[in-house]
Amino acid sequence: MDEAESKLVLELLHELNKKQRVAREESLVNRHFGAIITAVVSIAAVIVSYVQIEVAKVNKSKELDVKRLESERLWKIEAAKFIGQHRETIFSEDDRQRQIMRHVISVAFPKEIGVTLLVRVKKAKSGDLLRRFWKPDGINVEKKNEEKLKAWLENSEISGPGSITMLLHAESFEDARVRAVTELNLEGRQSTMTNVPNEQLSEVKNSYLQEGAQVTARLQVNGTWTVTVTYPDSSDGVM
Fold it and tell me: Any transmembrane segments, and where (predicted)?
């Protein structure tokens, strides 16, 4: 890392310290601010790549156009690397953990980078939401939800054998997945908790069942449970 990049990292740390003071009243971010500091090194790498893009855009010469393309490529690599390093938290089945990481990104990254990265995260997360909607316990298809997926695909003029599988997994369907999650209102209707102790499982399930939600539980290898809650929408006949 050269002198300019080192200066950028120091400025980032200074900015983080200022943002920490501002965020003290935000209990969620304040309780987990250590995660922001832990992520500083990888965040700095992403910012360096992004700054290189912006510098290259200033001059339209052929040489800097090449530099801009290379910087954009490096930015995508560094962003992907950051997501990979923190994938377990960013894409955790536990909605609370994902919320914490969103706060980390929004507080620690400059706005231009944070917005771009959160869009990438949202696209990747959409597949997880759709898969949970289709198979709430990770194994068995929920027929009612499958029919809704098929209806959405038909309305979107996406049809043919294996269309659900393509929607859930194909890279070319990335934007379609985001649209499906929005139009089916999955993010607002689904909630997942991980590491629910066996002795609390019945209490947790009953509390959501009393609210009219659909509840599925999946046993984890560590002996605790992953509980997925899906609330009905108006199309389910529940007001």
Answer: 33-53
Q: Please state, in angstroms and rounded to a whole number, the distance separating the CA atoms of residues 214 and 119.
A: 29
Torsion (CA) 173, 175, 177, 182 in degrees, nearest 10: -160
Taking phi over 0 as left and psi of -120 to 50 as alpha, with beta for the rest, 197 belongs to: beta
Q: Which residue has the higher pLDDT, 226 or 138?
A: 226
Residue 25 banded pLDDT, cuts 50, 70, 90:
very low
Q: Contact 97/86 with Cβ under 8 angstroms?
A: no
Q: Rg (Cα) of the chain, in Å, rounded? A: 21
Write down the domain spans for the chain: 3-109, 124-184, 187-239
- pLDDT tens readout for residues 182-195: 888 887 676 777 78
Q: Has domain 187-239 been given CATH number 1.10.3470? A: no
Q: Which two tokens stand for residue 148?
A: 């809704």
What digits encode the pLDDT tens for the residues 169-180?
888 888 899 899
- The larger pLDDT score, comparing residue 81 to residue 169, is at 169
Q: Quick count: other Cβ atoms within 10 Å of Cβ 2? A: 8
Cβ-based burial of 10 (10 A; exposed 0-12, middle 13-18, buried ≥19): exposed
CA atoms lying within 13 Å on the CB side of residue 155: 11
Q: Is 236:133 a contact under the CB 8 Å cutoff?
A: no
